[in-house]
Request: fold
Amino acid sequence: MKTATFIPKHHFRSFVPSRKPQKHRILVPLSFIVIIFTILQIPQANCTYAGPDTPSKVLIWPAEFSHWINLKILAENLVKKGMEVTVLRSSAYQDFMEETDDFNFVNFNVSRFHPGDHLQSMDHILHLLKLGNEKSSFMQTIRGLAHFWLEQLDMRQSQCNALMTNQKILNKLAEAKYDVVLADATVACGEIIAAKLGVPLVYAVRILPAEAQFQYSQTPIPISYVPMINTEFTDRMNFLQRTMNLLSYLYQTIGVELYGKIAMDPLVQKYLGPNAGYRQLMSQASLWLIRTDFAFEYPRPLMPNVKFIGGFHCKPAKPLSEELENFVNDDNYDGFIVFSMGSMVRNMHKSKANTIAAAFANLKQKVVWRYLGETPDTLGPNTKIMSWLPQNDLLGHPKCKLFVTHGGTNGIYEAIYHGVPMLGLPLLVDQFDNMVRIKGKGAGKTLDITNLNRTELQSTIVELINNKSYKENAIKLSELHKDKVMTPLESATYWIEYVIRHKGAYHLRPAAHELWWFQYHLLDVIVFLIGSLVGAIWVVKLFIRYLLRKKSDKTDEQTDNSVKDKVEEMNGNGNIASSTKVVNGHLHANGYKQKNSSLQHRKKNGIRVSDPISNGNGHLSNGFHTKLSCEYCHRRKNIQSTE
Reply:
């Protein structure tokens, strides 16, 4: 309860004009002084996290090429926050992971694979599927993809085995006492390392088969409006597409589960014990950092330990080099186009490169092309080929008109950030689905590089540049992407710090992790409710049958009594023998049952029954006509109807 502060009466003189003017004096109420003094004594709130005296330690398990480019940017920001970052680097990754002074590198040798093997494997499958001279057959595609994925999985398992069998490195990691393991989920082993060291695990990933990043975090996946990877569906699916989406989800899930059971569970159990499992380890991750956001992705439900950080590598453009600036800033041309197929595509078949170069040569724009292959014969003077280009700075240049891309996540988000329309030439994995989203947002179009021709490529580029709606939609995407409380990089860094501060974020994991699959989908409840409903219907049915049977018995008894009275009346008149009995409403004479009016060999009006029945010894006499039988039948029916 607040108490009023007593203010002496003379202090009110400063509020009320005095009749006598003061001589150059300003009276300050004592209450004002007290208030100001109190405010100065209140400590100011500090929203920034003050870390411990010793810097936090982060251990990184990376993936290859563009995945490492992403993770490296995040790691550099962690270093700026005062953290100590250590990167595990296998000998197979040394061709694209150069050592820097910013991080500590722990190198280990993988005997079966060497630097460049991963890139060579990727080159082979890309030329087979998209970048070669001829289109591969269906069987060639299946065999090529199977060989590629088996080779990739073998490389990843070999890396994990090489590290986990190196006891010297494991001891060194254990002594370092890391606070968190930051791992790319596309390369297995980060979860094993985290479990071995007993530290929290944070995943950074774009997408996994069967939406495994959402399955393992127990995030709901409504198949009716969440398209699976490689389906190229939007969130507005018709009946056939929803059917295909469900089938795709099922076979992808089966494949992921088989991979976990057959390939990874033995590896996990080898180093962590017989009770450990690959799916169990992945589901224990404290946090999932997903490289997408809702400016680009379709709306969907998320769990509290799943955070979207798409575009965290994007940043404002820096000035270009003098040579490059002079090339793109040419008044004789209408701006310029950036063409890059990502960090892993170095070249393509010469015929395909000639087709692309010929289309570029006829444009009114300059073209900056990242390409490491043989120079095309049709290369025009408006096209500049570079082995490496400052992609983000070029896309942020005010004269950039279009981005021709393979549809990789890094390039797409840089184009979104700077509001540049896109022409997609997707090659593999999620790139097709990425361009479906860009096309659906009205910020670009897609072409198939397999059957690409000069005229189609040139006309599509002209349309994307001249139709202002593509640029307007790209700018709208950029505005949505940037309109956040924190930048994606700040958000990713904050949540990693959050996990470190609280030694994990297990309180954000839902209780769904503790349920069996049939409990999660309420199948046990559904079976119980169906069983209860069927049981209730069966009981009601039995009760109704009992009531009907009881009523029927009562009716039969009343009918028997009525017929018996009639028989006695007839017997008194001598029409029926005394031995005739009535049972359940039927006449029984000398062992013969006469049912209703249907006597044996019933004849029409007035004809006697064929069986002779004696009247003297208790039988129905021959004089008992059908007419009487019919009269009896009608009487009985009348009695039943009145009842």
